[in-house]
Amino acid sequence: MRYAMAVDTKKCVGCSDCVVACQTENNVPNGYCRDWIVEVVAGSYPNVEIELRSERCNHCDNSPCVRCCPTGASHIVEGGVVLVTHNECIGCGACIQSCPYDARYSHPEGYVDKCTFCHHRLEKGQQPACVEVCPTNCLYFGDLDDPNSDVSKALRNRKWKVLAPEAGTKPQIYFLT
Amino acid sequence: MKSRRDFIKISAAGTGVAALGLTSLNWKGATTLLGANENDPVSDEELKLYPTYCEVCFWKCAGWAYVDKNGSIRKVIGNKEDPHCNGRLCPRGTGGIGMYNDEDRLKTPLIRETVNGEEVFRKASWDEALDLIAEKMDKLRKEHGPECLALFSHGTGGAMMGHLVKAYGSPNITAPSFAQCRGPREVAFAATYGEEVMSPERTDIRDTRCLVLIGSHIGENMHNGQIQEMSDAIDQGATIITVDPRFSTAASHSKYWLPIKPATDIALLQAWMHVIINEELYDKAYVEKYAFGFDELKADVQNKTPEWAYGITTIEPEIIRKTAREMAAASPAVIVHPGRHVTWYGDDTQRSRAIAILNALLGSWGRRGGFYFPDKVHLPKYPSPPYPKPKRSWRDAYPEGKYKLVSEVLSTGICDATIPNPNLSCHLRGWIVYGTNLMAALPDQEKTLEAIRNLDFLVVVDTMPMDITGYADVVLPECTYLERYDILRTSPHREPYLALRMPAAPPKYDSKPNWWIAKQLGERLGLGDYFKWDTIEDMLDWQLKQVDSSLEEMQKIGVKKYKREYEDLYLLENLIDYEFNTNTGKIELYSTELELEGFDPIPQYTQHPEPPSGYYRLNYGRAPMHTFSRTSNNPNLFDLMDENSVWVNPKVAALWELKKDEYVWLKNQDGVVTDFPIKVRVTERIRWDSVYMVHGFGHNNKKLTRAYGRGASDSKLITKVMEDPIMGGTGMRGNFVTFLKEDPNREEIES
After folding, report:
1. Predicted local confidence at residue B750, as pLDDT
2. Cβ-defined contact of B33 to A23 (cutoff 8 Å)
3. CA-to-CA distance for B442 and B714, rounded, in angstroms?
4. Is the pLDDT of residue B30 over 60?
5. By CB count within 10 A, which of A79, B214, B264, B660 is most buried?
6. For A119, which residue in chain B has the nearest alpha carbon?
7. What pLDDT, in 10s, does the model give residues B57-91?
8. Cα(B506)–Cα(B681) distance, rounded to whole angstroms?
């Protein structure tokens, strides 16, 4: 099993619903977030293009954050989900430095926090909160090993890219272009 | 004393309220949503669900409030059965919980009084506040007649307050959603098809093959069902054509973006008609069967060639032709979208008419992928006496026959009828303002303030200390939608649906629901017969039992689907015989109604003023995470967007030496300057002849502790109003601004 997510940049409107849904689902303190929106504007008026992306932890196959964690708080569970055990984290921030996606932040209570793919929901057979809420239905989630999962189907039928492939982290958030 | 109404910044001044409430800042300096030690997410199974429908905007999506065992509302999630949201709320709905948690909420009734020459608000009990309002309303009724009262309202609770005002005997019930928003399109579509567009819009975007957006920024305006359906349409490969001087989000998802010169849309629409008629691309059978005035229209657009329009709109003729052909190829599954906020240049009814006519040529009204025929649940009203018949109305402020085609009460008309004038037979003296921040909702703030200065009394009912509360004599704190019952949602859709809102938690502080306020005032005014139910539950249960449901059932399911009573969804699919509710019984391409009232029966492009040198047209719009000015202090939504910025083309920025993220003040053509500076966004997404900002920021009430002073208010800069002579709409896009790099309020002393 390999969980992954695909983000359809042709449908995303950058509304930030994924951000606030994550915050309320996961009690992320105001002022912090586990997912966020990136808007890239290219060209000059009137030949302009925008790419809108909902970004979050890439749950990398080759995750530098897990490798560099001195306590083992950062770890990988079934399905490739990268998690942080809060009470094992000493808040040293090495993982924050190592992440090429800037996906982690220091929680005000002293530990490092990030996207969990809503692991507590996956366990109950639910989708991550961001996927469930997205009004444009532009987030596809599921098991890459299952050819019939939403994410497998999306990646099969569309062109896609990942962010910072040169970092060699084998990220698992795909952007449909 | 009439001129006493100084703005009171709701505060603990004088004997005022020490109502600072609990601060949610914990010692670590972070604001947590739900307090410490509760950081771990809770499984849905441990939460209890209460049905609601959202009140953060007018789309009113049904959802569930999830409440934990401590009685805290943890989150709000869409109801999967609801066609408004299909289980997916928008960011404002998801963040609606912040409305409940906002520690700046109004907490107790407040009464204005003078202490040592200074006007302050003093905390009052509900009895005292309601007695005072009833006393003032009674006096007004006896001395001047009940027609001298007006209600401004926005949102669901306005219905209950409206019931009170109608029972009291006044017809002056208004909402800014007409004259400041969708009024022109409703009047235009009624003149063309005999029916309005309605809300939610009857656009069949889900099944369309071509969607044309004229300045409509779906995706930035987060009208949930529409954005969801636009996304479906993208999946299905529909063509999107966006006409906008700004590269909107919708434009970025479109096959064609027409970067039109502002204020020239009618010329483009006429050129499209020219192409569609002259290339014989229109739906001939449909037009022949249903339309009136085709020959007149054809003759009228003969000289409106794409080449003619090019000189006006700056859109190349080939693009005009190409896009016209795309629309025709998709016909009848094509929507030239009527938009929603369409009060732009004062000829907005005519522009909306042009849109309606174009749709008729394409045969999209009443067809799949075009405009469907909606249906709704017709809920019997709880038995109550008939309303008294008012003898006068706000219309007396205008000459006989003016605004004959206006189908709702004009909010600006209420202001006009409040400012003394010897010809006024119905001089309004009392206002109740429910759930709408008039300082941001109405253009020309000076006129609003002049009307307010002439009032005997002003009552504001709101959940938040919005700017308007500072001018009130009495402020009543309403509880939020998550803490109250409301009337049932019966809005029209493809299938009729009912939705229930019930409290998920008891009201915080000393706040009360609108229905309780209305009933209490009614009883004090001797209008108890209009409120014969004990609690709103009784009323809702009675109503629901008339339509084969019950309160108990609705508390479990939240929304209920009914069978359509009326015609088919796509009634005109097979060109059946059908009589439209117009003078001719036809779709009026040539409007006999407008002609009768002395207006152009066929829309004509007229040139509008252009910005003087050094000034830029002020365009404004919406951000997906905010609704008007009402959400800017919401802790969750503030977190997503905490200020607006002014969008400036890089060429303009270079000219003014404006840098990214620099703060500037904006000054308009009348010398009016923003209260606060606004951040510059240098972007290729905007034309060089205009600037853009998101509406709803720049609050000047310090009691909105987060939103105060953040960004600038577009409303303040909208001092020039281009009035629509047909329906009184307030065109707001004829204002021009320039940049001030230094604080215009700085002190300068010469000696």
Report:
1. 85
2. yes
3. 11
4. no
5. B214
6. B41
7. 999 999 999 999 999 999 999 999 999 999 999 99
8. 43
- Please say whether the beta carbons of B485 and B537 come within 8 A: yes
Amino acid at B748: E
Q: Tell me, what's the pLDDT at A33?
A: 96
B21: confidence class by pLDDT, cuts 50, 70, 90: very low
Q: What is the reported pLDDT for B11?
A: 41
Residue pair B172/B394 in contact (Cβ under 8 Å)? The answer is yes
Q: Which residue, among A18, A38, A133, would best test binding to B if mutated, counting the most B CBs under 10 Å from its CB?
A: A133
Structure-token pair, residue A69: 């964690």
Handedness of CA B531, B535, B536, B538 (dihedral sign): negative
CA distance B187 to B197: 9
> Taking a C-beta distance cutoff of 8 angstroms, is the pair B303, B278 a contact?
no
- The predicted structure's pLDDT at residue B22: 36
CB contact under 8 A, A24 and B636: yes
Site of tokens 């400012």: B419
Interface test with B, best of A8, A12, A16, A118 (most B CBs within 10 A): A16
CA atoms of B26 and A24, how far apart (whole Å): 18
Residue appearing with tokens 């569609």: B276
Could you give all domains of chain B from N- to C-terminal order, each with its CATH number? 187-374+576-592 (3.40.228.10), 616-740 (2.40.40.20)
pLDDT at B460 (0 to 100): 98
| CA–CA separation, B2 and B120 (whole Å) | 16
What is residue B746's predicted lDDT score, i.e. its pLDDT?
Answer: 83
Structure tokens, B282: 């229109």
Specify the DSSP class assigned to residue B708: B
What average pLDDT score do residues B296-306 get?
98
pLDDT of residue B380: 96
Which chain B residues contact residue A25 at CB under 8 A?
41, 75
Mutate to test the interface with A, among B640, B686, B694 (most CBs of A within 10 A): B640
Q: Determine the distance from the C-alpha atom of residue A7 to the mean position of all C-alpha atoms in its chain, rounded to a whole number.
A: 10
> Looking at residue B6, what is its pLDDT?
60
Residue B34 pLDDT? 37
- Report the C-alpha gap between B233 and B333 in whole angstroms: 11
* Cβ–Cβ gap A27/B686 under 8 Å: no
At B18 the pLDDT is 35
Separation in Å, CA of A22 to nearest CA in chain B = 10
Of all residues in chain A, the one with the smallest CA distance to B686 is A45
pLDDT(B575) > 60: yes
Neighbouring-strand partners of residue B246: B686
> Does B78 sit within 8 Å of A20, measured CB to CB?
no
Q: Shortest CB distance from B32 goes to which of A13, A29, A136?
A: A29
Q: How far apart are CA B751 and CA B744, in angstroms?
A: 20
CA distance B210 to B362: 11
Task: Give the DSSP letter string of B351-410.
Answer: HHHHHHHHHHHTT-BTSTTSB---B---PPPPP-PPPP--S--GGGGS-TTTTTT--SB-
DSSP string, B153-169: E-STTHHHHHHHHHHHT
Q: Report which of B699, B700, B745, B737 is spatially closest to residue B719, judged by C-alpha positions.
A: B737
Contact B172, B409 (CB under 8 A): yes
Q: What single-letter amino acid sits at B711?
A: G
Residues B645-680 pLDDT 10s: 999 999 999 999 999 999 999 999 999 999 999 999
Pair of tokens at residue B59: 């789309």
Q: Which residue has the tokens 């919401």?
A: B634
- Evaluate if residue B36 carries a pLDDT over 90: no
Helix (H, G, I), strand (E, B) or coil at B247: coil
Domains of chain A: 3-176 (3.30.70.20)
Res. B544 pLDDT band, cuts 50 70 90: very high
How far B320 CA sits from the closest chain A CA (Å)?
A: 16
